[in-house]
């Protein structure tokens, strides 16, 4: 109970016969509020000690663990931790988050944002709690008992061969090299941006290397592949005509601006500009990756072979070092000679018209 001390009031909070932090306040009401706040804090502390880790501690430790992932993945995980902290508060006990509470969170996110966004949160939180079980003493994963939100997913656009050909036709020689880097590999956008001459391109063996952090543990995975003749000629031209002779990177921004002389990070306007010049529906780098997959499928390559080229995680991990199997992939990559693909399609059209 507060007591008068001169013109002020002394707050003397107690919890279970233990005296807590006192405070000299201007009014009795202020002193009473301080006592209630201190008792609540002590009660929450006791609850955390009794029932386990609070949500803030869990989120902080998980983000420390997630720092090993790529920046984009880390930012996504950081954003979802902010949302659950805003929903339940920093003092929420992790063990008290039940499947019912988890489902309520997902349903709210589906209404507030979208079903797809809620499902993405579910994926990240499921992974977060699994790491908590492995390394932080979390006993159960409530997200595994939740249901995905229903939503109609629009099919991702894959450009037609005619549109890709039109883009290639309007591209300059330098732009064509950049396009070939994707069309001849099926690589992810960032993987080409990271290419360096010394580490990732080997003209003598006619091989190139790709690296990704899209692995379960977030570690970088490196894979070597054989170059097609088209890719070899394009990269040779790039090497001989490169603007920045001292830069280790294959593709460097040579336009005046803050990124001049630095490796590309996004290059957002590149594909949009080419598509506009070619007069075709806009598509991006990832659409080229899907296009490569469709070309390989149409040429009769097996799903397993395509998975090996695209390096999806459901591909056998025992074949991590692809240079051991480059001999059987060598002929596969020659299927990515798009001049041949386009010529074959044109011949088929001529046959049908006659």
Query: CATH homologous superfamily of the largest domain?
Result: Intergrase catalytic core
Shape-level CATH architecture of the largest domain:
Orthogonal Bundle
Helix content: 40-55%
Termini distance?
A: 100 Å
Q: Could you tell me the CATH topology label of the largest domain.
A: hpI Integrase, Chain A
Describe the structure.
With 354 residues, the chain is mainly α. The protein folds into 3 domains: 3-51, no CATH class; 55-145, Orthogonal Bundle (DNA polymerase, domain 1), CATH 1.10.150; 161-353, Intergrase catalytic core (hpI Integrase, Chain A, Orthogonal Bundle), CATH 1.10.443. Helix content is 53%, strand content 8%. It contains 15 helices and 8 strands. The chain has helices spanning 28-51, 55-66, 71-88, 99-112, 115-135, 161-170, 173-183, 189-193, 197-200, 229-240, 269-278, 285-298, 303-310, 326-333, 338-353; strands at residues 3-5, 8-11, 14-15, 18-19, 23-25, 201-202, 207-212, 221-226. The strands form 3 sheets. A 3-stranded antiparallel β-sheet has the order 1-2-5, covered by helices on one side. It has a 3-stranded antiparallel β-sheet with strand order 6-7-8. α4 (99-112) runs antiparallel to α5 (115-135). The longest helix has 24 residues, at 28-51. The termini are far apart. The relative contact order is 0.08.
